[in-house]
Amino acid sequence: MASRVAFHPQTLFFSRREGCRDARSCRVSMASAIGSSAVTKVETQNKTFAPRDLHIQVTHSLPPQKIEIFKSLEDWAESNILVHLKPVEKCWQPQDFLPDPSSEGFYEEVSELRERCKEIPDDYLVCLVGDMITEEALPTYQTMLNTLDGVRDETGASPTSWAIWTRAWTAEENRHGDLLNKYLYLSGRVDMKQIEKTIQYLIGSGMDPGTENNPYLGFIYTSFQERATFISHGNTARHAKEHGDLKLAQICGIIASDEKRHETAYTKIVEKLFEIDPEGTVLGFADMMKKKISMPAHLMYDGRDSNLFEHFSAVAQRLGVYTAKDYADILEFLVNRWKIGDLTGLSGEGNKAQEFVCTLASRIRRLEERAQAKAKQASTIPFSWIYDRQVQL
Ligand SMILES: [Fe+2]
Ligand SMILES: [Fe+2]
């Protein structure tokens, strides 16, 4: 049963599936409190491989003349964005943080790792597994970037700056899932087969961020998401330290530092768009926030729990790994980063969008306070990822 207690960002603007025990068969249309038609849900057939709970699919919403902007920014991207990639030889690799299987001391290192992991509580493991599964759905994120008009990798080995960025970004990200996956595997604390099934389901489902092949929307989305993952991995690092696993803290911390670098690059792209086209960019920002930023793994499923993502999010909220407050903080950070309050010369519509994004964080915080005040006793549910051990939501 979905939690009525946890207040997490995914549900900020949507009515919950009240009374719906099975999200895969429950096709309640979610009403948006803001009323944009773009967020109306479409019905999908309950097929094994069909994504569920999709938005109405809007495609190619950016006009051709604006797509040209990205072509004209090729050289700019080369000198301003590609510099945020790290050369492979300077990058850490998962093996740097894992027992070396070719060494004499391998078994001893593994048993030390397992000893450390014994102290880690189940609710923390649920958060770490959820984060790992999110990272492991990387094929979906590369696909998503390659849906964007004007910046997609047209050939698979395109020499444009945008395509070089996307491939190298993917290659950097690939280490995140690898490292967390191997560490959790060695820990012996989690049900790897259930986790692997969840990853397969998730990659098969894809994601539905509502970015409409529109690079304005796409880069606003990735700016938000990189910061969200920076915060979430930073918090799992902090918690690992508290639970006495300094190696795991180091792992989560090093991943968080990659996310920070990615955030810097994506926010720089959007900053440039604000410089070139403040009106179009502020409209895009407001549009994404009205649709709300869906988390990359929002379609996750393990073959058992139809509300798995909501349950994982509820645990992350309760533990402070990723919360509604973080969502509001990220929004506020971006509003300040892009100096939205200082934009001038906007149309009436642009002014409204500016006002909307500048005041949204405080509205979200007020909603959060109300939800906290209404919070009832949290329920406990089993998570298949940890052999159905019960975890409080
Ligand atoms: Fe990542
Ligand atoms: Fe990242």
UniProtKB/TrEMBL annotation:
Q: Which domain of life is it from?
A: Eukaryota
Any binding details for the cofactor?
A: Binds 2 Fe(2+) ions per subunit.
Q: Which cofactor does it need?
A: Fe(2+)
Q: What is its EC number?
A: 1.14.19.-
Functional note: Introduction of a cis double bond between carbons of the acyl chain.
Family assignment?
Belongs to the fatty acid desaturase type 2 family.
Write down what this protein is called. Acyl-[acyl-carrier-protein] desaturase
* Organism field: Zingiber officinale (Ginger)
